[in-house]
Specification:
By secondary structure, the chain is of the alpha/beta class. It contains 7 helices and 11 strands.
């Protein structure tokens, strides 16, 4: 039986440990093609490169496996892989990750990881974004194994047009299971610290904390806090359909 072809990307960069762990796990059952940013691209959202050249270089990731480092954004990486690097080949699935840091609630809007998967969805490919909800926890095994399990389910069942899956894995030794969730309502209380560089010039550094507003594990933030893997189906259609109907009466 022919193996599925899975395109893997991320926003942490092609050298990140998370994408290497994911690639090793997915290679156990699929042919893998990696196209990822050559440097860290967290929180760049769905930006794409239009006014600068995009260079791509073949890069040794581990042992005898090569990926392609893209001098661009996560969305660039998916676009150039689908339209050029893998042109003419049938891609069965896109997986973006494994990201370090949660991509829950409002973070979904900022996330380069989610945006790479969104780009795959826009291009008509079933897509999954996977994040490990810590910047310091480095055991990607649970996240990689769950991504592999979910990938097989999606390959079998497919996804609705325009829908992708956003997965967040708790940074714990033993997860309590997985649950289908909704995007949380939690948001950031942003703060810009005023700092001085060695030349005594002022600059600003974004900090802050999450205002956790979600009370049940039906939402991604709370599920992760309770040690549960959160799987949220999301869509790139941002239309507010309820208000759309009301606006029809505005007589614009």
């Amino acid at each position: 039986m022919k193996k599925p072809l899975i395109l893997i990307c991320n926003d942490d960069g092609i050298e990140a440990d998370g994408i290497k762990a994911l690639t090793k796990e997915i290679r156990k059952f699929a042919d893998v093609f990696v196209a990822a940013p050559h440097t860290q691209q967290s929180a760049v959202g769905h930006s794409i490169t239009m006014a600068n050249p995009i260079r791509v270089r073949k890069t040794l990731m581990f042992r005898d496996f090569y990926g392609y480092a893209v001098e661009g954004t996560p969305a660039d990486s998916v676009k150039i892989a689908v339209h050029t690097l893998l042109k003419g080949k049938k891609i069965d699935l896109v997986i973006s990750g494994i990201n370090q840091g949660a991509n829950t609630a409002i973070n979904i809007i900022y996330s380069g990881t989610v945006s790479a998967a969104t780009e795959g969805t826009i291009l008509g490919l079933p897509s999954i974004a996977v994040s490990l909800t810590s910047y310091t926890y480095t055991d990607f095994s649970a996240a990689a194994k769950f991504a592999s399990k979910l990938a097989k389910i999606v390959l079998k069942n497919g996804l609705p047009k325009g829908t992708l899956l956003n997965v967040n894995v708790p940074a714990v030794k033993k997860v309590k299971g997985a649950k289908v969730t909704m995007q949380g309502k939690s948001n950031w209380d942003d703060n810009y610290e005023i700092r001085l560089d060695p030349a005594n010039r002022q600059y600003f550094w974004l900090t802050g904390s999450m205002n956790k507003m979600d009370k049940t594990t039906d939402f991604d933030v709370k599920a992760v806090d309770e040690g549960i893997i959160s799987v949220t189906p999301i869509h790139y259609d941002l239309t507010d359909y309820k208000f759309y109907e009301k606006m029809k009466n505005w007589k614009l």
